[in-house]
Amino acid sequence: MKLQTKIALESKQHNQIDYNSRLLLIGSCFVENIGNNLEYFKFQNLQNPFGILFHPIAIESLITNAINQKEFSEDDVFFQNEQWHCFNAHSKLSNTNKDTLLKTLNSQIQLTAKQLNSSSHIVVTLGTAWLYRFIETDTIVANCHKVPQKKFLKELLSVDEISESLESIVALIRSVNSSVSIIFTVSPVRHLKDGFIENTQSKAHLISAIHQVVEHKKNLHYFPSYEIMMDELRDYRFYAEDMIHPNNIAVKYIWEKFKEVWINLEAYKTMEEVDVIQKGLQHKPFNPDSEAHNQFIHRLLERKEKLQSVFPHISF
């Protein structure tokens, strides 16, 4: 008896992720769920250098600015609710000091440009096809930063507009890194503030547009995060308390599916060793001064040094 409908996954890819890979992850908050697992297992990765970016135009803007080495100035920031913000970035970068914000924006742009050039894999996660246009300047923003809604026009990107943006993203990336594998996915997080029907329409536009762009021969791939959550995990026990975000069990389940497709089998042994060390570092002893605990710490240090001798980039 089958109690679950399973999503068919791609077979193992030829350009899989191992401990020599460099990853850039950009997009919706779900990209951080995958990224946090990559971080835990000590893969080389950079997550959302401009914070969470929900729609494809915001992602395209970041990549464009990074490749063009844009330098942010006072014209690119504004003061609202006792903080300085930038419409191109998430509020996690906002700061009470204008100069600090500008310094952060420019350092993150440089970091993004460096990662675009050196990445072996780039994961792009789209969250919504809805966006907001700032009326005063007629520009699309990545984040409204709680500026009154009357100052924006809300728009739904068409399938063609999204696919054009994705094609532009691919072209921009390939202009500086021709061999990179690009993995697209759609966030399973529902944007219910837009409305139930509107959210469904938005996700449908994103999925349709991505499938107009992905092509294995061009090293452009799709990972079905959204479909796994909606179909394999279609039960509220897999959601957080808000009944919108996937809970830890769901995130772990989807990560295991991602690992099954994209992580090289030869990396599994290293991942197991990293996991042992991570759990050892989190261990809280009953008696920190005991001989047994000192021996435990010594063995843990030996394991760390042995692993770091093979992979110098790994740091705990």
UniProtKB/TrEMBL annotation:
Any coiled-coil regions, as ranges: none
Domain GSCFA per the UniProt entry, residue ranges: 22-258
Residue stretches spanning the membrane: none
GO MF annotation list: hydrolase activity, acting on ester bonds
The name this protein goes by in its record: GSCFA family protein
Source organism (scientific name): Xanthomarina spongicola
